[in-house]
Every structure is written in C-alpha cells, then in structure tokens.
Amino acid sequence: MSRNGPLALGFHGLVVMFMMAPLVVVCLVAFTPENTLSLPTSGFSLRWFRAVFERADFIQAFYNSLILAFTAATLATLIAVPAALAISRYQFPGRNFFSALFLSPIIIPHLVLGVAMLRLFALMGVNGSFTWLMLAHVVIITPYVLRLVLAAAIGIDRSAEQAAESLGAGRFTLFRLVTLPMILPGVAGGWLLAFINSFDEVTLSIFVSSPATQTLPVRMYVYATESIDPMMAAVSALVIALTAAAMIVLDRVYGLDRVLVGKH
Amino acid sequence: MAFLQLNALSKRYGAVDAVVATDLAVEKGEFVSLLGPSGCGKTTTLQMIAGFVDVSAGQILLDGRDITHAKPASRGLGVVFQSYALFPHMTVRDNIAFGLKMRKVPAAEIAAKVKTVLELVRLAPHADRYPRELSGGQRQRVALARALVIEPPVLLLDEPLSNLDANLREEMQFEIRRIQHAVGITTLMVTHDQAEALSISDRVVVMQAGRVTQIDVPYKLYEHPRTRFISDFVGKANLLAGDYDARGIPQVRHAAGDGELVLSLRPEKIQLVGASEGRLQGQVLDRYFFGSQWLYRIHTALGEITVVRSNDGSAPLGCGAAVGLDWQAELLRVLTADEVHP
C-alpha cells in the first residue's frame, strides 16, 4: 500500500469537504426552530421532523418508495442471478449481447429513459400504474445487481460445484446448497445497492409516476419547486440517515471497496 | 475384466486432440497414477471418468457397467480436487456429511459414518471448524474424508498434493497411501510429480501429448523407461549414443557422432573412480549439495554427464578435479525411438 503525499491528502480533504458540506448543512438546518432555512440557527428543535410526520402525503410517498424499492430490487435480483450465472460460465450465442444489454441502462441518461418510458407507457395506456413504475425501476437497477453477482459468480471455486455433483447433488440442490451460499455476499450486496438506487431515484420517476404512485424523492422535488422551508431539510436528513444505514449494512455484508472500486 | 476400464477413450476440443484412444485397466483395490507434464491429457482423462467432461469417443466401464455418458451424480465416484473444493460455508462435519445427505442416509447413520471417517483422517477435533480455519494439509484431509465417506467404488485424486509445501507433501503422500490401504479402495491419481507417482502407486501410467506411452510398476518404470522422454521425465538420465557390440550387448560409443542406439544411464548408477581409471575420463565442472547427496556435472569426451553420489561422509570432489567414470554395462538402458511429438 503506497501512502499519499501531503498534496494528494489536501486534495482528498477538499473533495470530501465539498461533498460532505451540503449534507452536513442540510442535517443541521433540519433541527432549526425557525421558519426559514437559517444557519447558524437560534436553537435546537424537532418541530420540522414533527411536521414531516404530520404530512400524510409525505408518509404515503415514503411507503410508496419503500415498497417500490423493495419489490424492484427483489425482482432485479431474481433476473440478475440467473443472468450472471449464465454469463459467467457458459459460452452461448448472444452472450456478449445479453451482457451489454443488461448493463446498458447504466450508460443511458435517466432523463432519456424517463421520456422514452413516458411515451411508451402512454401508448400502452398504463401511465400511473405502480407495476409499470416498478418495472421501469427494475430496468435501471438490474445492472447494479448484475455487476456484483457477476463478480461473485466469477470468483467462486467451480470445482466445489463439481464436488457437489459427484457427491450426488442434482441441479437444484446444487444451486440451493452450494452455488447460492457461495455467491450470497454478492447477491445481498447487489440487492441492497439496487434498493438504495431505486429509493433515491428521481429523474426517471418524475416522468412515470402519478400522484397516486408518487415516490418520496418525487414528492420532495415537487414540494421544493413550490416552497423551501426547513421541512425539506428534515425529510432530506431522514433520507440521508436511511441511505447511510443501508450503506453501512452493505459495507458489512459485501464491502464498499468491492462495490465502488471493484477490489476483491 | 478389470474393475475400471477405459477403452480407446478420446477427447477432442475442436481441432485439438486432448486425449487420444487411451486404454487402461485398473484392478480392484489398485492405486494407479496418471503421470505427465501439464497439458498431456491426464486431467482431462480423470475428468472424463468423473463425468465433468463429455467423452468424444471410447468407453468407460466401471465394474462391467458402461458409465461413459452417465451424469456425475449417478456415477457415485469419490473425487478429490487440487483446490480441495470444500464448501466454504459449511463446517468440516457438514462438508463430509454432504454426500450422505444427498443419499438420504438417516441422521444417526450419517453421524456415525462421519465420526469414523474423521478418525480415519485424524481430524476428529476439528469437526466443527470451517475450511478457512484449517491448514492446507487439514483441508486436503477433509476433501479426502468427504470423498471416502460415501464409500465410492473408485477414488479419483486430481493433483491432490500440489498446493502443499514440500514437507507436508511428503507426509500427505504417506497419509494417502495409509488411508488407501486401510480402506482398500481402487484409486486413480493424476500428478505431474514423478517422485509422488513412484512413491505411492502400484502402477504408473505415463502420458504425453494425449497418449499413454508406458504403464508399469514404479521400479520397472524407473529402471526400464521405454522412451527418451520417459527416462528424462521420470528421474534424471544421461543420454548417450551407443551401438550393439559383437555379442549383441549395448555399449556406449566412444567416438563422437550419433550411434545406432540411444542409451540411458541413471546418474546414481555411475561410480566415480580415480583419474585415468574407469571407462571414461572427465573433469568436474560444478557440484551441488542436496544434503543426502552430491550432484556433480562432469565434462567428458561424450559431453556433459551428471553423476549423483550419496553423501557418505567422505570428502567431496572439488571443481576442476580430474576423475574417472565407471558403470556396469548391464545398467545401460536402450531407449526406443517411438517418441510422441506434440
């Protein structure tokens, strides 16, 4: 491991500060007793958090987001696990095509996808449907699960599977008792990363959600275009806390290094 | 008919012949090694027997039953892999019990069998550990126990010792042989280590470029290698040009140039005698110390010759020393020229 010089450390410090400062400010402002976004603030108060929990529309949006992220991440995982196993171990026609297809939503801007899906859903007459909003999310979060599961599937010892076969395990037993447990860190990490991405997603959701299926980020966006008050900071602080908690769990089960840097 | 029989077994990968028409008969209870350099087809042969690689042509018979195209699960063979291939998320006990659970053996019987085999491989105190908590040698024993506990008709070992360090490797060689004797199981081992193959096998099968080039008991293989490749691969050899003399006995040709015969002479079969004595004169180029032995490289009129002499406590020769070389003519081996060229 090489050490960073003072210049590099200073630069890293600036980057971290630049990224963290807005989050810190938002979290501090959330505790203000004032009626405006003010810093420094006059005291400590939870009134804006109370205000959030009194807003039925925000609570509903939170549940929408939670159910959406949960189902979309689960469905994406169910798609990504077999896809990753097939891509990692078999040569078949169209293998590179499928691999690129599954990963492509990462490189297409969500704005473009949002507009495209809005038109598509309008043509299909399914605008405002929760199911189709969820499927749109599946499209954009599957690449995250696939990447992690692929890395896990490539990393496992294939001869352990051969050993299980020679000991009498059938295909399904082999997957359930040997393969799945061995790739489980990748699967769990992928699910969580997909969950976080779906929960935070706003660009695509603005286009394909309706008032009934509005997600929390979309609700916040709509609210912020009308008025800025410390309640937004309180909601943001709650979302930051939830995401941070999920990240900590992700780090525990899989390791953030491996997700973000690709270290093994 | 032999217990395990390969009839003209072949494997082609596209245009590449990995294994060419291999015949082999392994008797019940026998320990046979497949020996050869990497890429010679020995591992492919083992994998075809295990069922992990499809057979291109030929037949595999186990106790008279044709298993050529049977699924690995239905062959019931015990396989030990180079990487150990233990299930990382299971304890030693669960790893070993896996095959029995697949066979739906009652729990009480599983517990008893696992206990017996754990004692056989001397791992009883480690039953509840995970593979990552074990040393390389211990993992190898778990792999062996897991393969043996299902009481397979044949045990297949794929380079079982190559991930172990030198000391442990020797210990595990004896251990595998001890266990194989105790259980009396028919065993086929793949290895690229000739010392390993010679020390623990009943018979050794030498493979080169997908073909079997010699099958013999270890002593015969070492003393009577058929080809130049085998004499070099199994132990060390000095290759000398030679001719048959008037009585039809092979002799080293002392003039330069190719002889009618290629002769092999093992380094330890040569005696070092005083200068101007013996059959051949030379000068010590270099010497290497191996503890129990000295290895000398000696320059002679016939080219460089390697001589191994046991370290019997006498003073070693210095570099540059003039020395005579002598050997018994009947220890010269005539090599046949039917080499396989990859």
Descriptors for this entry?
heterodimer, A: 264 residues, mainly alpha, MetI-like fold, 12 helices, B: Rossmann fold, OB fold (Dihydrolipoamide Acetyltransferase, E2P), 6-stranded mixed β-sheet, 9 helices, 26% helix
The CATH class name of chain A reads Mainly Alpha
Strand content of chain B: 25-35%
Number of domains of chain B: 2
Order of helices and strands of chain A: HHHHHHHHHHHH
Main sheet record of chain A: none
Taking all Cα atoms into account, the compactness measure Rg of chain B is: 24 Å
Largest interface: A-B, 18 and 26 residues
Q: What structural class do helix, strand and pairing data of chain A support?
A: mainly alpha
Give the CATH architecture of chain A.
Answer: Orthogonal Bundle
| CATH class type of the largest domain in chain B | Alpha Beta
Tell me the structural class of chain B: alpha+beta
Shape of chain A: globular
Task: Estimate the strand proportion of chain A.
Answer: under 5%
Order of helices and strands of chain B: EEEHEEHEHHHEHEHEEHHEEEEEEEEE
Report on this structure.
The complex is a heterodimer of chains A (264) and B (342). Chain A has helices spanning 6-29, 47-54, 56-89, 95-103, 110-124, 130-155, 158-166, 171-200, 203-208, 216-226, 230-253, 256-260. With 264 residues, chain A is an all-alpha fold. Chain A has one domain (54-259): MetI-like (MetI-like fold). The model of chain B has no long low-confidence stretch (mean pLDDT 90). Chain B has 342 residues and is α+β, with helices and mostly antiparallel strands. The longest helix of chain B is centred in the middle third of the chain and has 18 residues, at 166-183. The two termini of chain B are 32 Å apart. Chain B has nine helices and 19 strands. The chains are: A mainly alpha (264), B alpha+beta (342). The interface between A and B is medium-sized, with 18 and 26 residues.
